Amino acid sequence: MAVFPRRRQAIVIATVVGLALSATACGDGDGNDSGSGNETSAECSAFEKYSGNDGKKVTIYASIRDAEADLLEQSWKQFTDCTGIEIDYTGSGEFEAQLQVQVDGGNAPDIAFIPQPGLLATFANAGKLKAAPADTKASAEANYPADWLKYSTVNGTFYGAPLGSNVKSFVWYSPKTFKEKGYTIPKTWDELIALSDKIAGTGEKPWCAGIESGEATGWPATDWLEDIMLRDQSPEVYDQWVTHQIPFNDPKVAAALDRAGTILKNDKYVNAGFGPVKSISTTSFQEGGLPILDNKCSLHRQASFYANQWPEGTKVGEDGDVFAFYFPAVDPSKGEPVLAAGEFTVAFADRPEVQAVQNYLATPEYANSRAKLGNWVSGNRGADINNFSNPIDKLSVQILQDQSKVLRFDGSDLMPSAVGAGTLWKAMVDWINGKDTASTLAGVESSWK
């Protein structure tokens, strides 16, 4: 799933301390300071279109927390200083479940960053969301591929622009260890299995994994299934699967899950640094790849945002402590598909100050502001690639902006929320813990019906 929700801490923060973002106040359009006087009217001129909301408060709720939440709040600081709008942000690891509770209780946030289009559609169909302002829609249409915008469009109404994005199709490894042991980066699935066998032959377990994530436990395993569905089948079959035009327990889906099982349920391969196969279900997603740093694990399949999970001081790069390679295609001659995900900025209120925040977050200006702080990816075509300093982020942005790539959005996030963020997550935990493929998929199919 789209897991910005599930990130924790300890990252190398590539912060640009001297940015105007750190200022504490700004001037108004007439050159008069409206705060402590640290900002000039020239610095705030870009935010004049959002004026008239001084002293108003906007609440935002999302799954982004800890160090990433700190960066998030820095990213809109100049906006709040210059406009006078106060943004009250809350991040939660139980975001999906608690957002529903808040909405049902009449206590919805003004804005939410929702990673699951299926959940977004649930709220839209229930009449809980407000249509995006015209400026938000115009900015989104100018800066994002049409395919991405359809994920936040329900029954013809556009509800929100993408915010952050991520690329899921990566395998993390240690460049230093690979060099020392003579391992080469695999280019095909068969080469990936051959490498795994080679490492297992030394008496070490090559793979480490973790799918525990609080109330969202199980989502990392769904990414394996989705990525392999894209590799075993055509993009068209993938689309049929996520929209239930073929049943969830179709033989094509079973074959993909069995292929995932050749790694995830292989006692010779997993779970390095943690224990047997079943330890995957109790190992937190944040900790899943950390044994790579201790040479207890060689391979960890996880999205680009996993760059934020490495301890402070870890160098991410081709010559660093850790880096990632493309999760190999089964048959590269048929293309190299990419699984991606991200959040959408939607609103439960349409007060002027709420719309001002929603409009700003959809712009290239915001995307570049956040990018300069590091450890973030955006598919916004107005974002300057040079503002992304982390090598894995830069690589991800290049992939997202490459119109020749076959990209598909995270499948479980596209499914109805009761399935994609409900029965499927739970089913993957049961599967890891020993349930067979046929029963696992049949259970999810029954829940969809």
Automatic annotation (TrEMBL):
Source organism, top-level taxon:
Bacteria
Which Pfam family is one of this chain's hits? SBP_bac_1
Matching Gene3D superfamilies: Periplasmic binding protein-like II
User: Entry's InterPro entries?
Assistant: Bact_solute-bd_prot1, SBP
Keywords in alphabetical order, please.
Signal, Transport
Q: Where is the signal peptide?
A: 1-25
Q: Which family does it belong to?
A: Belongs to the bacterial solute-binding protein 1 family.
> What's the protein called, per UniProt?
Alpha-glucoside ABC transporter substrate-binding protein
Species this chain originates from: Phytohabitans flavus
Q: Please spell out the taxonomic lineage of the organism that makes this protein.
A: Bacteria, Bacillati, Actinomycetota, Actinomycetes, Micromonosporales
